[in-house]
Amino acid sequence: MAARSFAVPLRFVVACVALLGLFASAEFSTVRVAARQPAVAAPATPALTLEEKEAFLKKAKIVRTRGAGKGVTGTLRATLSDGTVTHDASIQTVDEYIREFRSNRGTELNFRDSWRYNVAAYRIDRVLQINMTPPSVERNYNGKAGAFTWWVDDVLMDEAARLKEKTPTPDVDAWNRQMWQVRLFDQLIANVDRNLGNLLIDKAWTVWMIDHSRAFRLNDKVKAPGNLTKCERVVFERLKALDLPTLKATVEDYLTGSEMRAMLQRRDEIVALIEKAGPAALYDRPAP
């Protein structure tokens, strides 16, 4: 039987080709429009209280770690997440005692470099209401006790970079008030390692004091009394009220009795210096 042939009208072929082209064009157009849509912003990290930050640092899962990029104590930068909040922390597990430590600053006897001092510094900052030290808690890492400290957000620069670039502060009075607090705090806790890289400046020009692993020395005299010229009134009243029972309740797990008593002796000298300077040495905290 001979094969039958079917003649397809030319108009029908042309119409089909045109329709297919229209579909292809519409699909391509949709893809291009979708590609131009802005990415959906990730939800902002909710504002946390200090207590919530402490709980997060203690319990959140460690997602990854890498070198912190600065310092000589093997500090790590870790990303933590609890399923809702994701944030970074620094991890320090250093805990060294050296009978005689030599550096370019000279020789120090009974040298200590310990993660415990980070936790102690944060807790004393809270007692005094200075509010310039990020939360720091004790937590184990790879089988070793250490300090997990909240990574400061929105850092513009550190003080070393600010001075190098000669960047002016936007509010000189606010800046000076913060520097007075830094100097007082360092004299109180006998911080022998306050280098300018450990003063971070965020986008709001708030100064943050970090890395106190070489503080709380046993000397009972302040090293630089000339730095103690001003003090915020609230901090001063809390400083005067500080006593050994309060310190034991706050930092007994992190400081020895000798370290606490030495700090109280330095406190006595600081209070005397401020009181000698008179009422002009005290100032009130600006309203938020």
Q: Count every beta strand, where a strand is a DSSP E run of 2 or more residues.
A: 12
Gyration radius, in Å? 30 Å
**Alpha-beta content class:** alpha+beta
Oligomer: single chain
Mean pLDDT: 86
- Per DSSP, the total helix count is 8
- End-to-end separation: 99 Å
Major sheet: size, sense and barrel closure? 5 strands, antiparallel
**What is the N-to-C succession of helices and strands?**
HHEEEEEHEEEHHEEEHHHE
Walkthrough of the structure:
The protein contains 8 helices and 12 strands. By secondary structure, the chain is an alpha+beta fold. It has a 5-stranded antiparallel beta sheet with strand order 1-2-3-7-6, sandwiched between helices. β6 and β7 form a beta hairpin. The termini are far apart. The N terminus is likely disordered.
Question: Summed up, what is this model?
Answer:
With 288 residues, this protein is α+β, with helices and mostly antiparallel strands. Helices cover 39% and strands 23% of the residues. Strands 1-2-3-7-6 form a five-stranded antiparallel sheet, sandwiched between helices. It has a three-stranded antiparallel sheet with strand order 8-9-10.
Question: What secondary-structure arrangement, pairings included, does this model have?
Answer:
Blueprint: H1 10-35, H2 50-59, E1 61-67, E2 76-81, E3 86-92, E4 95-103, E5 106-114, H3 116-128, E6 136-141, E7 144-150, E8 155-158, H4 159-165, H5 172-189, E9 199-202, E10 207-209, E11 231-232, H6 233-241, H7 244-251, H8 257-277, E12 282-283
Parallel strand pairs: 11-12
Antiparallel strand pairs: 1-2, 2-3, 3-7, 4-5, 6-7, 8-9, 9-10
Helix pairs in contact: 5-8
